[in-house]
Design a protein that fits this description.
It holds the Pfam family ADH_zinc_N. Residues 17-329 form the Enoyl reductase (ER) domain. This protein starts with a strand and ends with a strand. Helix content is 26%, strand content 25%. By secondary structure, the chain is an alpha/beta fold. The mean pLDDT is 97. It is globular. The chain folds into two domains: 2-115 and 301-330, Quinone Oxidoreductase, Chain A, domain 1; 127-276, Rossmann fold (3-Layer(aba) Sandwich), CATH 3.40.50. Helix 2 crosses helix 3 (156-167) and helix 2 packs across helix 8. The chain contains ten helices and 16 strands. The relative contact order is 0.16. Strands 3, 5, 6, 8, 15 and 16 form a six-stranded mixed β-sheet that branches. It has a six-stranded parallel β-sheet with strand order 11-10-9-12-13-14, with helices on both faces. Strands 1-2 form a two-stranded antiparallel ribbon. Bound molecules: NADPH dihydro-nicotinamide-adenine-dinucleotide phosphate. The site of NADPH dihydro-nicotinamide-adenine-dinucleotide phosphate (NDP) has 31 residues, from helix 1, helix 2, helix 3 and helix 10.
Length: 334
């Protein structure tokens, strides 16, 4: 087997040597276990959180331990009655490994959906799709005609949030870091407007594109972008607090939002959430997202990097904004 092991806790950006590629023999399976060969390894901003010794929603990966992560795998050996070699599964919270040994009872065989590629199970039908679906539908509860703003709008979560909000009949404005992403958001994903925060004055652009204020802020980024949105929220607005990616590599304490008081004045509902808490409801979310996908109502992109050896270096794509849609590493053939 080959696995990526955490050797040192990154300070700021991940650097060479923080993770080490290690070879080890595969142990025989115990009763109830299966072995899955990784096809796609999911790379997520939260991988960076797990590498730090911070009080997060899961304990950090220990030094000397295999890096935590999931993706799509195919069963190669099984000592669990419910899964056979050849079955394709979402490995959930597994490891950065060519082969994962997992309890079969925690896995489910993925269905084959007409016209839907396997990579959809890393994006719209995976954890990021469920983050978008439940964060928006369960927390923000959008109503037709409302104005929704989403940051990191062309990423895995954001690209789904924007389109689900459009399906709900909302006016949707996305914030992203390049003209190409903004073009994709308007022309392919069908958003009403997109703002390039690297070249535009975000506040002025929000004033222009949200003439009736903002009812829902799906927050993925934090920092100045979040502040500009908070300043323009409407009364009784909702703000699913999904992520704060602009802070994950910070080495100094990060100040709170400058416009914090506006959350009081506007009676905004701010709710932090972690998608794993929605795990029991995933079937409901996956079913709805699969319907929309098959009806052609959801467009999605996958940013595929080839080669397991490139996993740690590819994580920086998320922090440099190089990915359009869901970032994965293709570890082996489908
Ligand atoms: P994305 O595919 O959106 O990739 C991250 C994107 O963030 C980049 O493409 C980049 O796009 C943008 N970004 C990076 N750094 C900055 C910065 N300093 N300022 C502004 N934008 C930045 O990743 P995900 O969809 O997986 O995750 C999006 C957010 O959702 C993250 O904050 C993540 O932690 C969070 N998340 C939360 C979950 C939960 O359960 N609460 C579950 C999954 C994700 P750009 O070109 O626009 O800069």
């Amino acid at each position: 087997n080959k696995t990526w092991v955490l050797r040192s806790r990154p300070v700021g950006d991940i650097k060479d040597g923080d993770l080490e590629l290690v070879e080890s023999p595969l142990a025989p399976l115990a009763d109830g276990e299966v072995r899955a060969r990784t096809i796609y390894l999911s790379l997520d901003p939260t991988n960076r959180i797990w590498m730090s010794d911070v009080d997060a929603y899961l304990p950090p990966v220990g030094l000397g331990d295999t890096m935590r992560g999931g993706g799509i795998g195919v069963i190669t050996e099984s000592r669990f009655d419910g899964l056979q070699p050849g079955d394709v599964v979402n490995t959930g919270l597994a490891h950065w490994a060519l082969y994962n040994t997992l309890p079969g009872a925690s896995l489910a065989k993925l269905p084959t959906l007409p016209g839907v590629p396997l990579t959809a199970f890393t994006g719209p039908l995976g954890a990021t799709g469920m983050t978008a679906y439940f964060g928006l539908m369960d927390i923000a509860k959008p109503k037709a005609g409302e104005t929704v703003v989403v940051s990191a709008a062309a990423g895995a979560v954001g690209s789904m949030v924007g389109q689900i909000a459009k399906i709900q009949g909302c006016r949707v404005v996305g914030i992203a870091g390049s003209d190409a992403k903004c073009k994709w958001l308007v022309e392919t994903a069908g958003l009403d407007a997109a703002i390039n925060y690297k070249t535009e004055d975000v506040g002025a652009a929000l004033d222009k594109h949200c003439p009736d204020g903002i009812d829902i802020n799906f927050e993925n980024v934090g920092g100045e972008i979040m502040d500009a949105v908070i300043a323009r929220l409407n009364d009784f607005s909702r703000m699913p607090l999904c992520g704060l990616i602009s802070t994950y590599n910070a080495t100094d304490p990060v100040p709170g939002p400058y416009n914090f008081a506006n959350l009081l004045m506007r009676r905004t509902l701010v709710k932090g959430f972690i998608v794993i808490d929605y795990f029991p409801r995933f079937p409901e979310g996956i079913q709805q997202m699969a319907m929309w996908l098959m009806e052609g109502k959801l467009k999605f992109e996958t940013d595929i990097v080839q080669g397991f050896e490139n996993a740690p270096a590819s994580l920086s794509r998320l922090f440099e904004g190089k990915n359009l849609g869901k970032l994965v590493v293709q570890v082996s053939d489908e």
